[in-house]
Automatic annotation (TrEMBL):
Plays a critical role in the incorporation of lipoproteins in the outer membrane after they are released by the LolA protein. SUPFAM superfamilies: Prokaryotic lipoproteins and lipoprotein localization factors. The gene is lolB. This is Outer-membrane lipoprotein LolB. PROSITE patterns: PROKAR_LIPOPROTEIN. It is found in: Cell outer membrane. It comes from Alginatibacterium sediminis. Belongs to the LolB family. Residues 1-21 form the signal peptide. The lineage of its organism: Bacteria, Pseudomonadati, Pseudomonadota, Gammaproteobacteria, Alteromonadales. Monomer. One of its GO terms (cellular component) is cell outer membrane. The keyword Transport applies. Keywords: Cell outer membrane, Chaperone, Lipoprotein, Membrane, Palmitate, Protein transport, Signal, Transport.
Amino acid sequence: MRFSWVVVLLSLMLAACSQQPKPTDAVSVWKNHQQQLETLNQWQLRGKVAVIEADKRQSANMVWTQQGEQLAMQLLGPLGAEALSLEFSPGNLEIKAGEQRYSGANDPELQLQQMTGWSVPLADLPRWLIGLPDTEQYLLNDQNRVSEFVSAQQWLIAYPSYMQVGELILPRQINVETPKGQLKIRINQWQINDD
């Protein structure tokens, strides 16, 4: 009798000391991951971007730095030559594309389109890069990460692969299909600077 009380007591003590189990259902896993991504404030990625249109293909190495609502992007061509430099914060945009320069606050997305021919939703792009959809309608993959969604602009954003970055799982590859063509981003390195 005494032995069974010891076993019961030991079982209760072990149960009390165990950690709470991690969520296993898809919605809980996704919501936890989503909350982690929402807290990212300072990060940088390095990779390659390709723009594919009916009549042309262009590619460049890309460095994207995000600090809160401020972003800086550099596109580098052959031998590291700077093809485009962009700095954006709410209310201001600075672009350098070859000999062209722009600085101002009037409709930054329209200005970027006029200088480069690219229609880019600058406010949404940081979320897309870390794997957060801008809509409640999205599909999850087997690891409960976003596999694709249709953006507010009616673009198809797809995430064919992810990579482990410290405690996070972040996109390795992002494919964007627009009426004008495709944008493919291959990320080689993430650096998370949040404390």
